[in-house]
Design goal:
- The structure is a single chain.
- Helices cover 47% and strands 5% of the residues.
- With 281 residues, the protein is mainly α.
- The strands form 2 sheets. It has a 3-stranded antiparallel β-sheet. A two-stranded antiparallel sheet has the order 4-5.
- It is globular, with a radius of gyration of 26 Å.
């Protein structure tokens, strides 16, 4: 923003300047930035100008007068049980613990690869994420599922603290060839190909975790704490409603009505009162 707006006095910035900034925004490689990326810049600019207003340096915010377009990047791709099984089996040994943690706990990739053993309490069954570890800058406690706990116990057994050369890697939970794991793009792509899974990204595992938490009956407030969603809107966005969810909902309603409605309709017809039972008003 500084190269574009740096030569202007605050009061000289107009809505059309904000629109021009949006139009020329490029990535470092020269390619056009995504709508979501430009929106992030726009929001940052709007915040800066709001600060200027609070300090008496500006009367109105031109960035607020330019609407933010919908990036239309919402996804609802979740793996079926069979797809997850194929993906996990196809993954390389170093990738499996990462996939499992993301699939069952919903942690972001950066939260996973940056995890160190001092924040893993296997005895209590909790992973501690500090505020500096999370995208929302909010610390949280993540409870391990039994599968994740067993997996981390296995990784702890092979952990080595013998030489200074391996000291850095030994602090990190997830490693590859003796070094802290940083990227999985190639191995993840290979696993997807071998498992015959299309249109799926690593971040979609967070969608899977959120959806599975809801299906398991975990209340929304607790599930949001586990996955790290701060708003109900974001929680809903990460929850996928599939045909089986709708079918199960209909079955639950049917069961409720059977148990709580007078004149059980399970025989396939409704009990209609005879003419003598009608009351004349």
């Amino acid at each position: 923003m500084v190269p574009f707006f740096g030569g202007k006095i605050l009061s000289e910035i107009r809505p059309q300047d904000v629109e021009a900034f949006r139009g020329q925004r490029k990535k470092k490689n020269g390619k056009t930035a995504s709508v979501q990326t430009v929106n992030h810049d726009h929001i940052a600019l709007k915040h800066c100008l709001n600060v200027a207003i609070r300090r008496g340096l500006l009367q109105s915010n031109p960035a607020s007068k330019v609407p933010l377009p919908n990036p239309e990047n919402e996804r609802d791709r979740v793996l079926s049980d069979e797809e997850w099984s194929r993906l996990y089996q196809a993954a390389k040994p170093h990738l499996r613990p990462v996939l499992l943690t993301a699939y069952q706990l919903g942690q972001r990739f950066s939260e996973i690869v940056g995890l160190t053993w001092d924040r893993v309490d296997i005895k209590r069954g909790f992973i501690t994420l500090r505020s500096l570890d999370t995208k929302t800058r909010t610390a949280r406690q993540v409870p391990m599922t039994p599968d994740v706990k067993v997996t981390l116990q296995g990784l702890a057994k092979v952990r080595t603290l013998t030489t200074a050369a391996t000291e850095a890697a030994s602090r990190h939970v997830f490693t590859y060839e003796g070094k802290p794991l940083q990227r999985i793009s190639r191995s993840f792509k290979t696993a997807l190909k071998d498992a015959c899974i299309r249109d799926f990204r690593f971040h979609d595992l967070r969608h899977c975790a959120s959806t599975n938490l809801r299906r398991a009956g975990v209340d929304t407030a607790t599930a949001m704490k586990i996955v790290g969603h701060k708003s109900g809107k974001m929680w809903k966005r990460y929850n996928a409603i599939e045909e089986r969810d709708l079918t199960q909902a209909a079955q639950k309603v049917h069961k409720y009505l059977q148990e709580n409605t007078r004149g059980n309709t399970s025989r396939g017809y409704c009990s209609v009162p005879s003419s003598k039972e009608y009351v004349s008003y």
